Every structure is written in C-alpha cells, then in structure tokens.
Amino acid sequence: MKYTTLPNTDIKVSKLCLGTMTWGNQNTQDEGFAQMDMALDHGINFFDTAELYPVPATPERYAHTEIIIGNWFEKTGNRDKVILTSKIAGPGDYTAHIRTNGFSKNALHEAVENSLKRLKTDYIDLFQLHWPERQTNTFGIRDYKHNSADVWSDNFHEVLETLDDIIKSGKVRHAGISNEKAWGTMRYLEASKTHDLPRMITIQNAYSLLNRTFEGDLAEISLRENIGLLAYSPMAFGVLSGKYIKGQDDVNARLNLFPRFARYSSAQSTEATKRYLKIAEDHNMSLAQMSLAFVTQRPFVTSNIIGATSTKQLQENIDSIHITLTDDILKEIDQVHAEIPNPAP
Asked: Active-site residue numbers?
C-alpha cells in the first residue's frame, strides 16, 4: 500500500480509501465485515461512510452502513487502526426523512452525536458536509444556472463556528466538504483564515475517466490551497470495469438495480468507455485497474475511494495501487478525453 497524509495534518492515510456506500443494501453485514477485514489486511487504513448510506437513501435503511461499521469495531476492536470519515446529509427531497434543518447548529450537533452512537466510537477523524445547502448544479448538470428564488442564507461562518465547537469537544478531529463547488470551497477557506476557524482539509467529489470536471477551477484550488481531493465513483458505478459493454454484468449490478444513474450509461459514456477499454487491453491491464490507477496518481488526489460489492472486485481494486501509468498511456487517455470530454458529469 502507498500512504500520504491528510492535508495540514500529521494523519497518515492510505492512498486507497474503502468506500462503504452499498453496505446495508446491496451488501449484508457479513459482506461488509469481510471487506473491512480484507482492506485492513492489505494496508488500507482509511474508511469513508455517511449517515445517508446506503444509497439510494430510504427511511427503511437509514444509516445502516454506519451501524455495520460500528458492529465491526465492536467485534474486532479495530477502531484504533482506522482513520474514519462520516458525513452529515445535506438538505433535499430524498433526505427529508433524516432532517430538514440543513447545517444549522442543532443539525450538526445531532448528526455527530447520532453517528458516534451508530459507529460505536467516541470520535470521528474527518467529518464532512455531504453537499451544499444552497442550490447549485449537481449530478448530471454541467453548467451553473442561478436561481434567484433560492431561500438559502449565507452561513459559511456559522457552520465553521459550530464545527469549531464540535472539534474542541474532541468528538471530531477535522472537517471537510463534499460535492462542493469552487465558490463554496473558497468561501470556507477564506472564512477559516479570516476568523481563525477550522479549515476544511479535504473535498470529496466525483472524479473518474468519465467525469474529470474537478480539473477545472477546483484542481487549481486543491493544489494552491492544499485541500485534498477524496475521489469518489472512480469506477463510475462499475461502468469502468468494462462489464456492461462486454455483457458480463448480472442482474444485481448497480446500474441494473438503479437505472436512474443514467449519466454513466449514456451513448457518450459508452463510447468513451469502449475507447478506454481498448487502451487498457493494448497495454495488458484491466480497464478497472487502469481507471483506478489514473485517479490515484493525479497530483490533487489525497485518496481514491474504492467501493465493491464482492471481495473479488475489492481485490482487483486494491491491486491497482501497484500500477503506474506511463506518460504514453496518459497521452492516449487525454486524447479520448479531448474528443469526448466529461460524458458523465
């Protein structure tokens, strides 16, 4: 395994982070336990979860993923071997069963307390805001369109003040953001500098061969401001395994179970995937490992969040850490990107 440190800290984390989004829905508790055991055995010490998980979010399965992780900590006593992240769910129609008061002081305290109970721990290493409260372009929408009717009030300072109280209590060590944009990222960073409040040390956004939108303004912010990307969906919901275009998917594959994530199976995404598959095969590697290696070695990526629904998939994903893409391979990848840019934003 390869390691780095979380920006502006001395916390050592693996370059691969174990994603947990399927546990409690597609995966049972025993399967989640097996994945955590395997990850730890291979040197992965960084686990990512959220109160929202499993996804798709439903009232019936609310926070089951955190419960599974907490049960594993209780069974194994491995809490001290893991750098653990979780997230407070942002406001939205499909999170109304969790709460409706956004990132208010009460909401943040409640979210932390409840996550700690489910995770059976007395601290969370990195606590993240799952997406902005304000209305902005999110999944599948390339461009920002301003909504003058948005009722959100500017509260960057207030959010950081509450996080400061929580961090000082010892229940959270550091804070981060997720699904955030350039404007929001800079507002948090500037507010922390101006008022001596906690600094957002990471940003967890989607990043893959099919979605390189992070490489716009956010990549510059990441490198100049030292806020590391925790890249999620590096496999584009399994599309970048090549199984869908090869006809090797089964009925329980994620896009077959949840077809609403159609951005990954558009005509443009499929054509780009075919081209990336050819590059991988020409260089005697699997598309999955090429896709993951590409993300892991980007200079703005602190850790690459790998998820799997089986230990076989997880093993292949972990093995990608041993692959370094050459300049020639990267040039071939960039040629596809130039012709079919960001087909799954």
From this structure: 53
